[in-house]
Design a protein that fits this description.
Elements: E1 3-6, E2 16-19, H1 31-43, H2 45-65, E3 69-72, E4 97-109, E5 117-127, E6 134-143, E7 153-154, H3 165-170, H4 172-198, H5 203-208
Parallel strand pairs: 1-3, 1-4, 2-4, 6-7
Antiparallel strand pairs: 4-5, 5-6
Helix pairs in contact: 2-4
Length: 209
């Protein structure tokens, strides 16, 4: 296998901020807190919408670095109410396609932690569009839900952590940067995992590329 088409990654519908150390119903109990939380979501709208295109570009870059002839796939038809419910048989390619689903994106503070850190969980599938046969499939957790640096897990970049929701609220640019770091790390992990699963790209293909 030398060529891979990347289905453009659809943005997730909403980002979530969660603090497990605060009893349910307390964190956003006041009107002021609810307004501030809603305003933070609006501040992060650009980062939410940009994550799909940035992840798509990062995947193409990292797959190319692994020796594949990788390109984003044009003309993907998506149902408006379910953008990841794609009929692969209608795709305009016979090459294997990489489909990434963003399952959960947000900030999370664990029960025994003082810090908020990014959470980006996704599912990755590489498959033959004509048959739907899977070549590679994996769930990968970045940041809050990571359990070590394994095939399906990536610890958060230690540069990005916030000690309170107010600190998050006041630093939207840094929060956006933390998601960019997550995107780069996830793309590199997926590309490396695909290479491990499928074996080295033939030398002739690398030379031609």
């Amino acid at each position: 296998m030398t060529r891979i088409k990347v289905i453009p990654v659809a943005p997730i519908a909403k980002m979530y901020t969660e603090n497990k150390s605060v009893p349910l119903g307390v964190l956003w109990q006041s009107l002021a807190d609810r307004i501030k939380s809603s305003d933070f979501d609006k501040r992060m709208e650009t980062a939410r919408k940009d994550m799909g295109p940035k992840l798509t570009a990062a995947l193409v870059r990292e797959l190319t670095a692994q020796g594949y002839d990788a390109q984003a796939l044009d003309g993907v038809v998506r149902p408006a109410d379910s953008p990841d419910s794609i009929d692969y048989s209608l795709l305009l390619t016979s090459d294997p396609v990489l489909h990434i689903y963003l399952n959960e994106v947000g900030m999370y503070s664990a029960r025994f932690s003082m810090d908020y850190i990014p959470r980006v969980n996704l599912s990755a599938f590489l498959l033959h569009p004509s048959s739907g046969d899977e070549i590679y499939g994996e769930d990968i957790r970045y940041g809050a839900d990571a359990d070590g640096n394994t095939s399906g897990s990536i610890p958060a970049d230690p540069r990005y952590h916030w000690s309170s929701f107010n600190e998050l609220y006041d630093q939207p640019q840094q929060v956006a940067q933390s998601y960019e770091a997550a995107v780069d790390a996830l793309a590199a992990k997926i590309a490396a995992n695909i290479r491990v699963r499928t074996g080295p790209v033939p030398k002739a293909a690398v030379a031609a590329h």
